[in-house]
Design brief:
GO molecular function: DNA binding
Structural class: alpha+beta
Low-confidence stretches: none
Mean pLDDT: 86
CATH superfamily of one domain: Winged helix-like DNA-binding domain superfamily/Winged helix DNA-binding domain
CATH topology of one domain: Arc Repressor Mutant, subunit A
Protein name: Histone-like DNA-binding protein
Shape: extended
Order of helices and strands: EEHHEEEHEHHHEE
Helix content: 25-40%
CATH architecture of one domain: Orthogonal Bundle
Number of helices: 6
Radius of gyration: 24 Å
InterPro entries: HU-HIG (IPR041607), HU_DNA-bd_put (IPR005902), IHF-like_DNA-bd_dom_sf (IPR010992)
Strand order of the largest sheet: 2-1-6
Keywords: DNA-binding
Distance between the termini: 57 Å
Organism: Bacteroides reticulotermitis
Oligomer: single chain
Length: 206
C-alpha cells in the first residue's frame, strides 16, 4: 500500500504574483492500540490481550522513565527524551526548579528507521482535501453575507463557510486583522473575530 499525498498552495508574500505548490502527506487513518494488537496477533503466536497488556505496561514504564530525565532508546525505532523549558532570568541564582516544565517530547529516529522510510512510495489522493483557492474578494463577499446575521466568526466557521483548511482559515482571518477589517480580543486563545465598522456591510454607526 502506498502513502497518499495531495498538492497545497505554498503561502507567498502579499505583493508576490507567483503561485507555487508543494506536496503534503494525507493521513489515511489513525491506528489505535487495538488495531496494532490485532496485527501483531495475526503475525505471531501472541494473543491480542497479551499484546495490549504489554503495551499498557510499556506506556507506564515509558512515562515514568521519561519523567526521571532518562532517554529511552528503542532498537529499530529511535530515542525519546523530554524537552525542558523555563522563563528567562537575569541570574542563575533566580532560577527555581518549580518554574521549569516539560514542553514536549523529542524523538530522534534511528538510522535504520529513516533508511526504511525513505523507500516509502506515494500516490496522489483520489479525492482532494486541500483548501479551495478562493480570492480575497470572494472570501470578503462570503464574510459580508455571514455578518448580516452574525456578530462574530470563528476559524472553524470560516472553514465550513469557504471550504478552507484550518491553517488557511486562521491565516486569512489574521490577515484581515492586520488590514483593519476584523478585530480580535487581546487574549491569545480567543476563537472570536469581530467585523470592524465600515467593513463587510457593518455600519460605522453600529
Amino acid at each position: 500500500m502506498n502513502a497518499l499525498y495531495d498538492f497545497f498552495v505554498t503561502p507567498q508574500p502579499k505583493d508576490s504574483h507567483k503561485k507555487r505548490y508543494h506536496a503534503r502527506l494525507v493521513v489515511r487513518e489513525t491506528i489505535t492500540l487495538e488495531d496494532v494488537a490485532k496485527i501483531i496477533e495475526s503475525r505471531s503466536s501472541l494473543r491480542q490481550s497479551d499484546v495490549k497488556g504489554s503495551f499498557i505496561e510499556f506506556a507506564d514504564v515509558f512515562k515514568q522513565e521519561l519523567s526521571n530525565g532518562k532517554s529511552i532508546h528503542i532498537e529499530g525505532v529511535g530515542s525519546f527524551r523530554i524537552k525542558a523549558e523555563s522563563p528567562e532570568v537575569r541570574s542563575p541564582k533566580e532560577m527555581r526548579a518549580e518554574s521549569i516544565h516539560c514542553s514536549g517530547i523529542v524523538f530522534t529516529p534511528s538510522k535504520d528507521l529513516l533508511r526504511e522510510l525513505k523507500a516509502t512510495t506515494f500516490e496522489k489522493v483520489s479525492k482532494t482535501s486541500r483548501s479551495q483557492e478562493l480570492s480575497d474578494i470572494e472570501i470578503d463577499g462570503q464574510l459580508a453575507e455571514y455578518f448580516k446575521d452574525n456578530s462574530y466568526i470563528t476559524t472553524s466557521r470560516l472553514c465550513s463557510l469557504c471550504g478552507l483548511r484550518k491553517s488557511t482559515a486562521l491565516r486569512r482571518l489574521k490577515e484581515r486583522v492586520v488590514e483593519g477589517k476584523l478585530s480580535h480580543p487581546g487574549y491569545t486563545h480567543s476563537p472570536f473575530y469581530f467585523p470592524i465598522p465600515g467593513w463587510f456591510g457593518v455600519s460605522r454607526n453600529s
